[in-house]
Amino acid sequence: ANVISALMFAKRFDYNDPAFQAMVQRENDIILLTGSASVWMYNFFPWLGPFLKNWRELIKNVESNMAEARKLIADLKETLDPEKCRCFVEAFLIRKKQLEDSEIQNLHYHDENLLYSVINLLEAGNDTTANTVKWSLLYMAKNPQIQDRVQEELSRVVGSRQVQMEDRKSLPYTDAVIHETHRLSNIFPIALPHATSKDVTFQG
């Protein structure tokens, strides 16, 4: 969650921060509720919404996260420096200001779109990132020779410092392992299967 927060708001939370823990818990609950049968029923019969406990809980969690995101966006608006862009929200706000100053009408750069973009990235990014890490650890525990190659590549390229985005082009094997993890595993509870459940013969 802190990785997504740093990308969105240029801010990392203390892991013991009650507000951060509550936000992460709400995001986890949102993912679980989204996959529940009653929420799927709502998709077919929207008029059932007020009668479905899971749907009401889902909406409550989303609204709480939106209120938290509004506060974080408002804080960034107050400290915005067009010469120093640190995160997604600031990049969005700077571009929005540039368009407004040049009197260009753009339907995409407005506060509501910013809010929903942030919420989508927070709610979709946290769970899938954590699940990718969990599945990667599981597959590497089962395949220690792959774990050894990933560790060797990381030690050689990154060493003791933090991994950076620019390292990706120098980590082809690690990148391939992450992509294979996405292919093999189901990192989102309502995603489609990525592998057959039994052996098949294709075209003879």
From TrEMBL:
GO molecular function, one term: iron ion binding
The keyword Nucleus appears for this protein: no
Cofactor(s) it depends on: heme
Alphabetized Pfam families for the sequence: p450 (PF00067)
Family indicated by similarity: Belongs to the cytochrome P450 family.
Residues in coiled coil: 52-79
PANTHER family given in the database record: CYTOCHROME P450 508A4-RELATED, CYTOCHROME P450, FAMILY 2, SUBFAMILY AC, POLYPEPTIDE 1
Origin species: Nothobranchius kuhntae (Beira killifish)
Listed transmembrane segments: none
Gene Ontology BP term (one): organic acid metabolic process
UniProt keywords, alphabetically: Coiled coil, Iron, Metal-binding
Upper lineage: Eukaryota, Metazoa, Chordata, Craniata, Vertebrata
Stored SUPFAM superfamilies: Cytochrome P450 (SSF48264)
The protein's name in its UniProt record: Cytochrome P450, family 2, subfamily W, polypeptide 1
A single Gene Ontology CC term: cytoplasm
